[in-house]
Amino acid sequence: MVKGVIKMKFKLKIHDKNIDKLIDGEAIQSIDFGRGKPSVFYTDDEGYTKFTDNFEIIIEFLPPEPIKVSK
Q: Per-residue pLDDT tens for 4-18?
């Protein structure tokens, strides 16, 4: 039995530094950490697929307080 386990929900966002825009996690298609420089494909507001390799990952934890899980 696991005691003291805390699960937290979070939202993943990407800051595209090329256009200085925050991209919501639902628009992210893929993040590649393979060979070379990491890259992201996402859908823009007009429905087009965009690519960037100049980005920051932003993790927003929800809710602000942890949810205690018990088994």
A: 667 778 999 999 999
